Amino acid sequence: MKILVINAGSSSLKYQLMRSEDGHVYAKGLCERIGIDGSRIIYKNDRDDNTTHDTPMPTHSEALHAVLAALQDEKIGVVKDLNEIEAVGHRVVHGGEKFNKSVLINKEVLTAIEDCIPLAPLHNPANLLGIKACIEIMPSVPQVAVFDTAFHQTMPKAAYMYAVPYKYYEQYGVRRYGFHGTSHQFVSEQAAEYLKKPLKELKIVTCHLGNGSSLAAVKNGVCVDTSMGMTPLAGVPMGTRSGDIDPAIIKYLMDSDNSLTIKNVDRILNKESGMLGVSGVGSDFRDLAQAESEGNERATLALNMFSYDVRKYIGSYAFAMGGLDCIVFTAGVGEHDAEVRERVCLGLEKFGIQIDSNKNANVHGFAEISLPTSKVKILVVPTNEELKIAQDTAKLAAKK
């Protein structure tokens, strides 16, 4: 089934036309600077035809028109007409407690996504713009919402609640939601397939490590805990995000520096902390590795802090699940940074987690990097959130 996967941002629209059965990408690209001067579309098809051209895109509707025109173009297009596109899958960041799985979009779903805007004020409004543009232009094509938060809705209450007055959960939805759910679900399913065991019989820790990082404890096929919280700021330190901190630090900083406002502190914790804040070098792990090789002690500290926290989460999740069968590394850093993977596994040998340094140093795509004697399998699994969105969309569209 040919599925158009849409990931709409406030001024951008990423797209892929995929075959849901095997993940073949017919075409993909990006519309950028929507609503801003200099808007343009970037397009690449499976014949390696590439094009970038400027085109006015005052709204997401014009951006989608540009995408559909490119897909049908006589020279570089991949479909003869829009009837070949059988459904559209939309990435939606936040579904709150309303959605624990992907759903066909109707008026009630649109309202529910809008109700979650306070929980994701930067993302859900943009996601809605993309959905509404598609409905306007392709009214007869099934539209599906796939939520970043849905996979984590299986967490038990003891795992997702915060120890604040209960009324704040009831009135404002203050709780752990988790993110990267589509990725965590996809790679856990891929791991089970590789291990030739039912996912419902496995205990897996999935490590989605990149500029934004999160871990998930996947027990018997469902998420029972995850490191990100009510927002993506919680958990391990990230590229520019602080990760877990003592919340009293916020008041302390504001009392110590009268020029700081809550917006300032929020910006600091989200944009100026993490690897960037500790190292002073940057948020890119490649830059940190280079700085470390040149003797930069703060770069070393940042990398050690990151690896330590990831290792700590793996250990805590193993105990919480009552055991561990597999660790999965995925996303930009998890898939491509052998040194980080080695650092994370350092010291876990006594718990039956043994990494093969030679295999780890020579990873190209999907790989098993644990020693044969390791009681816990260690895998590198490239994530493919777009394919997961396409698969969910195809299943729901087929039932319509």
UniProtKB/TrEMBL annotation:
It is found in: Cytoplasm. Mg(2+). Can also accept Mn(2+). The active site is at D148. The record marks H180, R241 as: Transition state stabilizer. ATP binds at K14, H208, L209, G210, N211, G212, D284, F285, R286, G332, V333, G334, E335, H336. Keywords: ATP-binding, Cytoplasm, Kinase, Magnesium, Metal-binding, Nucleotide-binding, Transferase. Coiled coil: none annotated. GO terms for biological process: acetate metabolic process; acetyl-CoA biosynthetic process. Substrate binds at R91. Mg(2+) binds at N7, E385. One of its GO terms (molecular function) is acetate kinase activity. This is Acetate kinase. The gene is ackA.
